[in-house]
Amino acid sequence: xxxxxxxxxxxxxxxxxxxxxDLTIGNEIVALVGPNxxxxxxxxxxxxxxxxxxxxxxxxxxxxxxxxxxxxxxxxVGYVFQNPEHMFFEESVLKEVAFGPKNLxxxxxxxxxxxxxxxxxxxxxxxxxxxxxxxSGGEKQRLAIACVLAxxxxxxxxxxxxxxLDEENAKSIKRIIRNLxxxxxxxxxxxxxxxxxxxxxxxxxxxxxxxxIFDGDVRGFxxxxxRKYDLDRxxxxxxxxxxxxxxxxxxxxxxKALEMRT
Length: 262
Ligand SMILES: Nc1ncnc2c1ncn2[C@@H]1O[C@H](COP(=O)(O)OP(=O)(O)OP(=O)(O)O)[C@@H](O)[C@H]1O
Hints:
- There is one protein chain.
- By secondary structure, the protein is of the alpha/beta class.
- 37% of the residues lie in helices and 23% in strands.
- The strands form 2 sheets. The protein has a 6-stranded mixed sheet, with helices on both faces. The chain has a 4-stranded antiparallel sheet with strand order 2-1-4-5, covered by helices on one side.
- Helix 3 crosses helix 4 (108-121), helix 3 (93-103) runs parallel beside helix 5 (137-149) and helix 4 (108-121) packs across helix 5 (137-149).
- It is globular and about 60 Å long.
- Bound molecules: adenosine-5'-triphosphate.
- Probably part of an ABC transporter complex. Responsible for energy coupling to the transport system.
- Belongs to the ABC transporter superfamily.
């Protein structure tokens, strides 16, 4: 369990980015949403110790982030950054994924096992010898997830994992996230894409001006006046409501509900 208790983050002694946030994350998919500058990245960087609390506490599976290094915490909380190509530096996909486990000082056998597993998990088997830079946007995103997965973290933070991807690639990322959840991982999904929230999240946390405005189920979240927070309501929900069907999570459920009616 990740526990955030009354967390405050103030940059340079004056810019208050996170204001008294409480939050827990277990084996679930939590969407972290809010307009630009609302504090999402700042909050997420606390979960693996990249930032330390100005006030309050973050406890990751019993470890106080102030008392543990980022390297230590990264074994438990993996962070897949936005624009993953900035993080690649090896000449092949295989070396890129093996880098993390190597750094942990694992045996060659264990490194190979983890690398293979991570590449399989993101469906990049057969790409081992390719250059990370020569991959498509969707493949780069999957490679970035594999690199973090190879560290076997229990929790994953994914920052805008589907932004800029076409539908096919976005689908594949969604499948990976669902798999990770069913394998017992906790996932924190930072996103501006409300369709993704609707389809995937168990819970939604809304930040606004650094404060937690909402923390609850997806249905409750979409009952909020989202325009007030610069967020869009998914079109599917409007269409479904107009059709008299009400709350659905994806197009398949909408079509099923339509068919049942006829
Ligand atoms: N290193 C920094 N130094 C000073 N202020 C910062 C720093 N990083 C972020 N901020 C400020 O803290 C506030 C929260 O920023 P943060 O990046 O956490 O928001 P966000 O919700 O992730 O935004 P976005 O959706 O645009 O990525 C913003 O006002 C931002 O300008």
